[in-house]
Design goal:
single chain; about 280 residues; mainly beta; about 15% helix; about 50% strand
Length: about 280
């Protein structure tokens, strides 16, 4: 899971927004889409770096909203948008829009306890830009306002830090259990280029001498698969407005060359987040 998406609090507050609007029109099934904005803050337990065997606590913040039907999501260091507007509360819609993101993985040795990893040196922040395409359907299985989405995003590093493309297919499903409780699940994978693999999971001969880790030069491929579960509970009694409490748990498994890297201390990466959100 790339550090652009570590603040998984976004998943807990963004997905319910679609269902919240649908709930308000559930009696008509085809009512107009209602704009909303939801903001969440809290804390997350995340790996100290990707491949680390221990976690650290960081602030978590995210926002999701629609303006005239056009969607946006801000999740920590990631901004994604949807330039195809929602028109109806239920039914299907294509997703298309730009994505921008900062990768901060191993950019500061102060966050890493392992002396060998610190000896590899810090990695400059990467700025990645690209886009996403997909489809979302509101009203699928359980009701007129459960949500199924499938997207593929692709971004490219424009700073030269890893100078690679990252492609992320993702599928998610969420449904309100009542006006007060929303649950959701998500599955995704990351395909990365060879330069990305060598930047974050490789060890050069010089780094090997400095750190004691064996030299390693991985290639491109699928870096990981991940699954996320979330719950959002309204403290005001209605998901469509007011204060709510969210929780997120995510499991990631590093694959192939990435799991075998001497940089990787644990193939299994766990993330937990919790906090408060407010819907306008």
């Amino acid at each position: 899971m790339r550090y652009a998406f570590l603040l998984l609090a976004a998943a807990a507050i963004a997905t319910p927004a679609l269902a919240q609007d649908a709930v308000s029109n559930a009696r008509t099934n085809t009512g107009p889409f209602v704009d909303s904005i939801i903001i969440g803050v809290g804390a997350a337990s995340v790996p100290r770096y990707e491949g680390s065997s221990d976690n650290t606590i960081i602030p978590a913040a995210a926002a999701h909203g629609t303006i005239d039907g056009y969607g946006f999501t801000i999740a920590g260091t990631t901004l994604s948008t949807d330039i195809i507007p929602y028109r109806n509360a239920t039914g299907g819609k294509f997703v298309l829009g730009p994505v921008a993101h900062l990768t901060l993985n191993r950019n500061s040795g102060k966050r890493t306890r392992d002396a060998q990893i610190r000896a590899l040196g810090d990695i400059d922040m990467a700025v990645e830009v690209g886009g996403q395409v997909g489809f979302t359907q509101t009203g699928v299985i359980t009701s007129d306002y459960d949500v199924l989405s499938a997207t593929v995003s692709a971004v490219y590093d424009v700073t030269g830090t890893h100078d690679s493309v990252i492609v992320t297919p993702s599928i998610s499903y969420g449904t309100p259990l009542s006006k007060q409780i929303f649950v959701g699940v998500n599955a995704s994978a990351d395909y990365v280029g060879g330069k990305y693999a060598r930047t974050y999971f490789g060890v050069t001969p010089a780094q090997s001498i400095a750190s004691g880790l064996r030299p390693y030069s991985p290639g491109d491929g699928f870096k990981d698969i991940s699954a996320t579960g979330l719950v959002n509970v309204s403290l005001a009694g209605d998901l469509r407005k007011g204060l709510s409490l969210f929780g997120v748990a995510s499991y990631e498994r590093l694959l192939g060359d990435f799991g075998r890297s001497p940089v990787t201390q644990d193939r299994t990466q766990m993330i937990y987040a919790a906090g408060l959100a407010y819907t306008f």
